Each structure stands twice: as C-alpha cells, then as structure tokens.
Amino acid sequence: MTALAALIRRDIKIALRVGGGALIGVLFFLTVTVLMPFAIGPDLAVLTRLGPAILWLGALLASLLTLDRLFTADHEDGSLDLIVMGQTPLELACAAKALAHWLAAGVPLIVATPALGLLLNLDASATSAVALTLLVGTPALTFTGMIGAALAVTLHRGGLLLAVLVLPLSIPVLIFGVAASQAAITGPLSFGTPFSILCALSLVSLVIGPFAAAASLRHGLD
Amino acid sequence: MTLIDLANPTKFLALTARVLPWLTGATAILLLVGFYQAAMAPDDYQQGATVKIMFVHVPNAWLSMFVWGVMSIAALGTLVWRHPLADVAAKAAAPIGAAFTFLALVTGSLWGRPMWGTYWEWDARLTSVLILFLMYLGLMALWRAVEDPSRAARAAAVLTLVGAINLPIIKFSVDWWNTLHQPASVMRMGGPSLDRAFLIPLLVMAIGFSLLFVTLHLAAMRNEILRRRVRSLQMMQASQAA
Hints:
The structure holds two protein chains of two kinds. By secondary structure, chain A is an all-alpha fold. Chain A has one domain. Chain A is 86% helix and 0% strand. In chain A, α3 runs antiparallel to α8 and α6 (90-119) runs antiparallel to α7 (124-155). Chain A is elongated. Chain B is built from seven helices and no strands. In chain B, α3 (86-116) crosses α7. The chains are: A mainly alpha, B mainly alpha. The interface between A and B is medium-sized, with 21 and 23 residues. Chain A: Pfam families: CcmB. Chain A: One of its GO terms (biological process) is cytochrome complex assembly. Chain A: One of its GO terms (molecular function) is heme transmembrane transporter activity.
C-alpha cells in the first residue's frame, strides 16, 4: 500500500514540476475552447446550445494530449522496467499511475470548466452539470487512454497512432457525457439515465484499463 | 491433426493447398445459388424490391462481428498459448473484416435511403458498427506502424481483446436503445420472425459469405506466411552481403 501511495505521490510531483507538463493540458483546453467561437461565430445563443459539447470535446482532446506522458518518461529513464519487475502487482501499479495522472492532469480540467463556461455563455446550473459529468467521465478517458499509452510505449510510437487507437474507445464516454449535460440543461430526457451509464463506463474502465495496460506492458517490454 | 500440428507453417501450407480449391468451389456454388434465390425471392409487401438488399447486408453485418470474434480468439492464441500462426491469422483477418464492415455500412446506407429517408442516422446500431470499422482501421494502422512483427502482434492482440467489448454492444444496441434500425429477427428467442421465403435465401447467403471469409482468410494467411519467409530470406541475403 505504501509503495502505491509513494508511486502516486512521485507521479504527481513529477507532473506538477518543471517539465512535467500536466498544466499544459489546461492551457490546451483553454485554447480549444477559445478557438470554437471563431469557427462557429460569436452568436451567444448558439454557443449556449453547443457549450457542453465544446467543453467535452476540449477536455477529451486535452486528456488525449497529455496521455503520451503517462509511461514515456518512465520508460526513457528506466523506472518503468523497475515498476514492471517490482513486487507490487503491475495491474495495481498501472491503476496508481493512472490515478496520479488523472489527479494531476484531469482534475485541473474540471477546475477550469466554470471559467470556460463563462466564455461560452453557460449559466451556473449548466456549468455545474458539465463539471459534474466531466468529474465522473474523465477517469474513464484516462483509464481507457492508458491502454493506448501502454501500447504506444511498447511500440516506441506515440502521437498519431495513440490518438487513432484511443479515440474510438472514448466515443461512448463522449456520447453519454454530452447527453447527460444536455439533459440537465434543456431536458426533456432525464439527467439520471445517461449519467448512470457514464458512471458505469467509468467503473468498467477502472477494471479493464489497468489489466489491459499491464498485459501490454508485460508482453511488450523486453 | 490437431491445432498444435498446424503450428508448423509448412504443414499448414501443405494442408491449405489441398483444402483451398474445394473451399473456393463450394463458396462459388453457394454464392451463385444464394444470389439466384435472392433474385427470385418475392418482393416485400411494404418494402418492395429494396428488401433484396437484406441478402447482402445481413451476412456482411454478421461477418463484420464474426471476424472480430475470430481475431479475439487468435489474440488469445498469441498472448496465452503463443501459437505461432495465431498472429498470422489475426493480421490476415483484419483487412477482410474491415471490408465486410465497410460493405455492411454501405449496403445499410443504401437500404436506409429509400426506407428511412436518410443515408445515415446517428443511432446506436449504426454508431457502434462505425466504431467497429474505425477499430479495424486502427488495428491495421498499428500493424503498419511497427516493423517487428512479433512486437506488433502482442500489442495488436491486447487491443483486439479490448475492442471485443464492442461486440455485445453492437448485438444488443437495438434492444437497449430506441433506434431506427430494426431489432433482431433471425437470431432471437422464440425463433426467427422472418418468412421462409426470405429466411432460406438469407441462410444460404450467410453460409456462402462465411465460406468466402474462410477462403479469403486461408489465402491471406498463406500470403502472410510466404511474405514473412521472403522477408527473412532477404534479411539473410543482406547480412551475408555485408
């Protein structure tokens, strides 16, 4: 247990320090959100309607951008080999790394959501609905994305290949995240149904992600 | 002859060389009979002649999922039993599966235009099949991105098993969500709801397309084995020349 706690603490520290790049995700999130009104036009009514979708897309792309860092740095300096050979089960270590990554890169996105909601003319209830769905949904993005990150690091390929592999897996999260936010804002469907499915997706990814990532690390590293 | 005997690629090549002509012949006969029966089948009282699209659409849609299932078993073979032909099987199946998925999407779209009034609708069944298609393409991209075949094989196997979650979602999407796509009418509790005049040609076509897959798959596996042999011979030659 202490080993896992130490791993989480170490990963968060590395991510937040110079060269860690956790906060660059938030900057990217802000940039994507600011770009949208230029593409769509500054019509506030339209922005209100599209706001949840824009925020979800921005968060999805921002979390994809930072996924590359989940294993790459550890692979380069050799600590990933130590984690693979260590006493702690690799599945738990992967889960701990993903949790740390979510705390360092995912939570700032959620914290930034209210400010970005203002730019998109969302009112308080709409913003809180989006923030709540992001709080529940971004762990699913991180934990399914971890599978792609593990594959990419064993193949020494990142970037585009990672995006191509991970994006199809994250479509369900996007669908139900946006559906729940829209339901909370405009109705007429209930907020509970898509929100529960979103929770279920997160829980399933919490189970499958670490096992698949550990399997690919174990078979792929040599 | 057990599965482990086939681990020897030479034995596999010899066996498939004997089986393939028969398989090709059977596929051709079944598909010809199927197409003839489909052409002779009566028009639907509601859909008219467009119902004939079903005889191509449904087998392709079944196979798009069946091929991923075959690849998942092959992925287990790669990861668990380290069967040397498993990754050849998975790699050879992916483009064929992608083609079946693409045909299912295209024929469904052509059928949807006269029946639903739209080529595309973002409902659960169509979206989940589109995701399946994207995952086929992603897998093929992964194989193309990595030079070392065994490394690519293990990575692809993990991704294939993760992607297998999509199969039950596709199958049950028509029951879980309200969609434009009709619910299952052949493989369902209480027997098929399809009339015999449509059911028999459909089954003939389904068997014909399945045999087509087996034939193409075995041929593609033979090509892949030969391609790997050529590659290792070339590398041997290059190392001797140096």
